[in-house]
Amino acid sequence: MANKGPVKVGIIGSQFEADIHAWSIGAVPEAAQVVAVASPTPGHAAELARRYGIPRVFTDYKKMLAEDDIEMVTITAPNYLHAQMTIDIANAGKHVICEKPLCMTLEEADEMIDTCKRKGVLLLYAEELFFTPKYVKAKEMADQGAFGKVYMVKQSEKHFGPHAPWFWDVEKSGGGVFMDMGCHGIAFCYWFLGRPQIKNVYCQMNTYVHADKTRGEDNSVCIIEFAGGAVGLIEDSWARRGGMEDRIEVYGEGGVTYADLHMGNALPTYSETGYGYAVEKAPSTKGWTYPVFEELWNYGFAQEMRHFARCVRGKEEPQATGEDGRIVQEVLYAGYQSAGTGRKVELPFRAEGVKTPIELWLKGKAQE
Ligand SMILES: NC(=O)c1ccc[n+]([C@@H]2O[C@H](COP(=O)([O-])OP(=O)(O)OC[C@H]3O[C@@H](n4cnc5c(N)ncnc54)[C@H](O)[C@@H]3O)[C@@H](O)[C@H]2O)c1
User: How many domains does the chain have?
Assistant: First the structure.
């Protein structure tokens, strides 16, 4: 394998997030280069390859893993496949970028981390909010003392529901919106506050508008109490009409800041006819809309991929790891348990025999 020049990357998956990874790596050509893509549906990988000039295409990701020159592989497949894919990639001696959430269970998280350690490869957890320029700026200001002692951090992400059928199937996704987007908020609050110990988790959730489609929750509110007293407040929804919302609020004894990821990077627009594309999950481009410029850059995806590639070259220390993903996983368990019992759940928390985190909520609901 080469140990200089752009890191050679293979992508598993060819749809929504694969497109984001391909674009993002293409935006940092000095750091990384996509050389292969693997996806099982005939034609899909080839289509992504055509769009981004990716030279090699596979329908079986294991065949892609046999390619000697590939140094790092990104997983953009459904959640229930993350653990096995990570283990296969590590066993092939390649570094792993795993999309959020890390996996389905804590046992899987442990096995992923152990296997990557044993094989001497990096397990990089793709939490782009650690690289989102607006949020990075807020953290820099907090770390410089701009807000005094921070006592509450809030992150929320909301839209009207995901784009692919597997998200609605809890056997494949592991849960509803809390699993899908709450994982961002948990990681964000933990990272923003400097990774303090997590004391307890309280969560409320329900299925308000999509009960015809899923057993998963489509709205969740989660409160995390950290050692030192700060609180994380995480709101997520698949029930929110009107397109995508992603924002944070930071409250300290000496100040406050608010960041709406899309609004400050958008053009308030009115159009009778509509136009090509506004922003992720926008239901329409007619009437009043808020198209975002440099959407993926403003989210930090390219910066995230550049960082991961530089970690492979030993130029930077990983800032988003399997261990971060494991902590998120533990909070997901605790959150579903809390929603199922109506009580705060103290950490460490580990439930045995769980296949999907959402079971912990569904069990409690069934007993109501
Ligand atoms: N970081 C983010 O903001 C973000 C955004 C969207 C999705 N994601 C994550 O990315 C992952 C993929 O989500 P998506 O939205 O791209 O889903 P998607 O349904 O759009 O794409 C999933 C891809 O996985 C492929 N796949 C399915 N089974 C496979 C197999 N056995 N082997 C290889 N490939 C297989 C599918 O063919 C498809 O190409 C999920 O874990 C999701 O949570 C992250």
Answer: 2
Instruction: Give the rounded distance of the alpha carbon of 144 from its chain centre.
Output: 27
pTM over 0.90: yes
- What are the φ and ψ backbone dihedral angles of 187, each rounded to 5 degrees? -60, -40
Residue among 17, 48, 183 whose CB has most ligand 1 atoms within 8 A, to mutate: 17
Report whether residue 41 contacts ligand 1, using a CB cutoff of 6 Å: yes
Closest C-alpha to ligand 1, atom 30? 40
In whole angstroms, give the CA distance from residue 299 to residue 321: 19
Instruction: Tell me, rounded to whole angstroms, the distance of Cα 248 from its chain centroid.
Output: 16
Give the model confidence (pLDDT) of 96-126 as tens digits. Answer: 999 999 999 999 999 999 999 999 999 999 9
Ligand 1 center to residue 18 CA distance, Å?
Answer: 7
- Kindly state whether residue 158 falls inside one of the protein's structural domains: yes
Q: Give the closest residue to 310 by CA, choosing from 122, 110, 54, 104.
A: 122
Q: Domain containing 213 — which CATH number?
A: 3.30.360.10
CATH label of the domain that carries residue 68: 3.40.50.720
